[in-house]
Write a structure and sequence with these properties.
Pathway: Cell wall biogenesis; peptidoglycan biosynthesis. The protein has 659 residues and is an alpha+beta fold. The protein is built from 20 helices and 20 strands.
Length: 659
């Protein structure tokens, strides 16, 4: 009869909720935490995950050695505790089982009063009837207090030892067994002596019981205690917040990021922004262009109000400056408009009312397409864009996986020079496709996402030709040449500086500027962002991966060996016009050395359409002259480049030495 009443009493127990909230975790590709969030009441409580078996064995041996045999209450332990209390006049050891401790923890109830103890016994007995032992043990590992706002063994291991609880040392396990008994009084950062005494007491008792060897105890006793709490991982905050907002009910998110690489890149950008000056921020995306996996995503240099660090600059739409020029050239190669060795005019030109100018305001006359891209000249790329049609460029960007936004409804020629809004993430996507031969995987960071491939931007031959040109760019001081195909960019008004590049395996994009769009006078992508790009590759891996060889169909010829239509760039409609009578500079001939008499020399011209203009080292000195013999003033000495332009924009040039 009494047993039936006891069973009824236990079965009627109303249990508190056993499914407690745990913090959301963002994890890297190897399961390491990138960022963890507190639960609603400010507690650090995490899913326990795998726990060191040695710690569990030590916990059970010290706290509740008959855990797997009792029904929630251990009468022998309670009798022992009562006898010791009567003998010593104070509590020497507790009689609570782990199940009773779980009952107290999930109810957050009192421990010492008889009413509280009776309630713990009732809940413990009910727990044992309704839950398996493994789940009860898991509840303890999740709820045990470890000082401050730490709950659970995993939060404790991360905070006290900066490690997962999968592999704890004997000394670390002993401390984590001791702390929940008096979590505030035994905190090693506040009471080192009490923490050491509690840890050592456990070690000695387990040695007396033959559980630990003398050598193990000696090594554990010599191990230092932690002196401070470690901060919880707070890596990739912008991406973490974005993932959490996308699925508020999920407790765990697995990413493609690498925690070690992410940490290195965040440190690099914080340093770069500090050197760049106040209010400057920075962003970076690093990816494996063979798989599309994003390895690091840094949205800002730091969460500082002065730098507007809360703005995720990997997703912000900004002017890309010159970083889209390689795609214009690649499309022109595919359309048969040009070849890397094709000659193209860098001279004044008008497209309706639009007159593009180079960044330095100079003109270089006839240059190879390779040089035009490496020097990032504006006029040649606009000529090619006009021949292609800007809509073709925009369509290629869309196929490549980018979402570019035009300031007006339809694209104009200025899109080639940065007259479009695009994000850093999308630029890295496009350069990753370029690195993969004109078509590559779409970038991804959520391991639950299906892997997809972008559309084709350009042919593999054109992509290789563009990469080969970009690999010939002069690197920042101290960096090796020819190992990275990269391009820099500076938006109008020096508002954005960019550097994006790739080797045979990885692609990285860097942005520096001010999130509010205010200018940064004197900032250029080559000076500000390029050194950060090369340093990022240095921190990513020990050495660069080699760039690929040319595809079999690649035409590797000099300018003079090219087919006639590719030797000099002419728009498609020019094929139906008469071949222009280009001006020829008869005197002085190219390579001549001259003495300027009376401070001037006389230029002699043939052909071309008057009036003529003369530029010396890119600067106009004679404009709209109707004459074919032009007296040109000489103001300097040494190597001088003379450029003659006629009324149709045709040109000839010579390099001479003035003495």
């Amino acid at each position: 009869m009494a047993r039936d009443r006891l069973d009824t009493w236990i079965d009627a127990t109303v249990l508190p909720p056993v499914l407690a909230e745990t913090g959301v975790e963002i994890r890297d590709r190897d399961g390491k935490p990138l960022r963890v969030y507190q639960v609603g009441n400010g507690i650090w409580r995490l899913d326990p995950g795998p726990v060191d078996p040695g710690f569990v064995a030590m916990l059970l041996r010290y706290e509740d050695k008959r855990f797997y045999g009792h029904p929630g209450v251990d009468p022998l332990a309670m009798l022992r505790a009562t006898a010791q209390a009567l003998r010593h006049g104070q509590t020497v050891s507790g009689g609570s089982t782990l199940t009773m401790q779980v009952a107290r923890l999930i109810e957050d109830g009192p421990t010492g009063r008889w009413a509280g103890k009776l309630r713990q016994i009732r809940v413990a007995l009910a727990l044992e009837r309704r839950l398996p032992k493994e789940q009860i043990l898991s509840l303890y590992l999740q709820h045990a207090p470890y000082g401050g706002n730490l709950e659970g063994v995993r939060a404790a291991a991360l905070a006290w030892f900066s490690k997962e609880p999968r592999r704890l040392t004997t000394a670390q396990s002993a401390l984590l067994v001791a702390l929940p008994q008096a979590p505030e009084a035994r905190r090693p950062d506040r009471n080192m002596d009490a923490a050491r005494m509690a840890r050592d007491r456990i070690l000695h008792r387990l040695a007396d019981q033959g559980i630990l060897s003398t050598a193990d105890v000696r090594a554990a006793l010599s191990e230092p205690l932690p002196t401070a709490l470690h901060g919880f991982p707070q890596l990739a905050p912008h991406l973490a917040d974005r993932m959490r907002a996308g699925d508020p009910t999920a407790r765990q998110f697995d990413t493609t990021l690498d925690a070690d690489i992410q940490r290195k890149m965040e440190a690099l950008l914080a340093e770069a922004a500090r050197k760049a000056g106040g209010r400057m921020s920075a962003a970076l995306v690093a990816a494996d262009h063979q798989t599309g996996e994003i390895l690091a995503s840094v949205g800002s240099a730091a969460y500082e109000p002065a730098r507007q660090g809360f703005v995720d600059m990997t997703r912000a739409l900004r002017s890309p400056g010159s970083t889209l020029k390689p795609f214009v050239y690649g499309l022109a190669f595919d359309q048969g408009l040009a070849h890397p060795e094709t000659l193209i005019q860098d001279s004044p030109v008008m497209f309706g009312r639009y007159a593009p100018r180079n960044f330095d305001g100079q003109f270089r006359g006839e240059v190879r397409v390779r040089e035009a891209l490496q020097l990032s000249l504006n006029i040649p790329v606009v000529r090619l864009t006009e021949a292609l049609g800007p809509a073709r460029l925009m369509a290629a960007l869309t196929r490549g996986g980018a979402s570019a936004r035009l300031p007006s409804g339809s694209p104009g020629l200025a899109v080639a020079l940065g007259g479009v809004g695009i994000s850093l993430n999308d630029l890295v996507q496009l350069y990753g496709g370029l690195a993969q031969g004109g078509q590559g995987p779409l970038l991804w960071y959520d391991r639950t996402q299906p892997r997809t491939t972008s559309g084709r931007i350009m042919s593999d031959v054109a992509a290789w030709q563009v990469g080969n040109i970009l690999a010939g760019l002069t690197p920042p001081p101290g960096a090796r040449k020819g190992i990275l195909a990269y391009k820099t960019g500076t938006s109008y008004g020096h508002r954005d500086t960019w550097a994006i590049g790739y080797d045979g395996r990885h692609v990285i994009g860097v942005w520096l500027g001010r999130p509010d769009g205010t200018p940064v006078p004197g900032a250029f992508g080559g000076d500000v962002a390029a050194p950060v790009l090369f340093e990022a590759f240095g921190r990513l891996k020990p050495d660069f991966s080699p760039l690929p060889p040319p595809p079999h169909a690649t035409l590797l010829l000099g300018s003079a060996e090219l087919p006639q239509p590719l030797q000099r760039f002419r728009p498609r409609n020019a094929a139906f016009d008469e071949i222009p009578n280009a001006p020829q500079l008869l005197f002085p001939p190219d390579g001549a050395a001259l003495y300027a008499e009376d401070g001037e020399i006389t230029l002699k011209l043939r052909g071309g359409a008057a009036p003529f203009s003369v530029l010396v080292n890119g600067e106009p000195v004679v404009t709209k002259s109707p004459l074919r013999e032009i007296a040109m003033p000489v103001t300097g000495r040494g190597f001088t480049t003379l450029l003659v332009l006629d009324a149709k924009g045709q040109a000839d040039r010579a390099t001479v030495t003035l003495r």
